[in-house]
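Notes from hallway chat w/ T.B., transcribed later so I don't forget. T.B. wanted the structure written out for a chain they're using in a teaching module, and asked if we could keep both sequence and structure tokens in one place. Agreed to drop them here.
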Amino acid sequence: MTRTTSNWAALVAAEPDLARTVEERFTAFTHHVVATLRKDGSPRTSGLEVRFLDGELWLGMMPGSVKALDLRRDPRFALQSNPGPGTGMDGGDVRIAGRAVEVDDPAERARYTEEVEPPEPFHLFRTELTEVVRTRVEDDRYLVVEIWQPGVPVRTFRRT
């Protein structure tokens, strides 16, 4: 089954409130967790910094890092926002799943480095989103889960 993908700009256009919340969660802290797939198919989690620039969600990595090599082999990833200090998780828990596309085009890399000063050399991946999920507690009573997938309006579930 092939999943539909979209870039960050598509989420912003389709669901601006959710996109704003997700971006706020990821920009509140520098480091987050990405899950990639090892050669044997087992998951690998690693620390990562992300950037939202020009309608895209970017993943930058050190050259030869195992997460970059994982993504070159199998581009599927899951990205978890940093919950912050303590256990309050103000703003909720945010996860993004998708595919990472390595960017080798010098002009595209130059546009990225105009905004971000990564250590050279580096791997740069543009993301294609398959799912964005926000989980939060509402009124200290309900667990609220919002799920967005390309081409589908946000679905919201509440559980007590």
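Follow-up for T.B.: Helices lie at 8-14, 16-27, 66-73, 106-115. Might be a good example for the class.
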